[in-house]
Amino acid sequence: MRLSDLRPILPHPGPWASVYADTSHTTEDAAKRQELTARAATQELAELGASAATRDAVYKALFNGPDAGPIGRPPASGKRAGRAVFATDGEVVLDVPLPGPPATPMTTWSALPRITPLLRSVGDPTPCLVAYVDRTGADFEVRDDAGQRETGQVSGAG
């Protein structure tokens, strides 16, 4: 996922409804489960203080199916999948199909959208090169979400 895919969120001040939902189509009652998921999310948003217009927008997005935009595409029937829906001011601003169900389904109403779970679920781990340098040489490590790996060493003329 490219950070530019989140650009639609930028011009909106919030507050934000952020919903991570399991939208798997693995059972015969998938349509009923989809409606229950949409209803549960909107009920939780009501308890958190979200506006009626924003709750309605989230309900319609979760119940009517995913937006097949440039970030992802809707799950095929029979596949485990999830969705991340971001709404504010009565409109769904971003609706992202996830590669699988969210690790923790979540519904929040907050000043800023909760995008970290989205980045974790669709983003690639970003490695980081760390160099320990002194007058005798350098040791290098590559670190990522999986931990660290030593990758090399260089000696200098102390």
Written account of the structure:
- The chain has 158 residues and is α+β, with helices and mostly antiparallel strands.
- The protein has helices at 30-48, 52-64, 116-122; strands at 16-22, 82-88, 91-98, 106-110, 128-134, 137-144, 147-155.
- The protein folds into 2 domains: 3-122; 126-158, no CATH class.
- It has 3 helices and 7 strands, in the order E-H-H-E-E-E-H-E-E-E.
- The strands form 2 sheets. A 4-stranded antiparallel β-sheet has the order 3-2-1-4, with helices on both faces. A 3-stranded antiparallel β-sheet has the order 5-6-7, with no helix packed on it.
- The N and C termini lie far apart (44 Å).
Shape, please? Answer: elongated
What proportion of the residues is helical, as a percent range? 10-25%
Main β-sheet, spatial strand arrangement: 3-2-1-4
Largest sheet: number of strands, sense, barrel closure: 4 strands, antiparallel
Overall SS class: alpha+beta
Structurally, the number of domains stands at 2
Distance between the termini: 44 Å
Share of residues in strands = 25-35%
Q: What is Rg?
A: 21 Å
Mean pLDDT: 83
Total strands: 7
Number of helices: 3
Which regions have little confidence, pLDDT < 50, spanning 5+ residues? Answer: 67-77
Instruction: Tell me the series of helices and strands, N- to C-terminal.
Output: EHHEEEHEEE
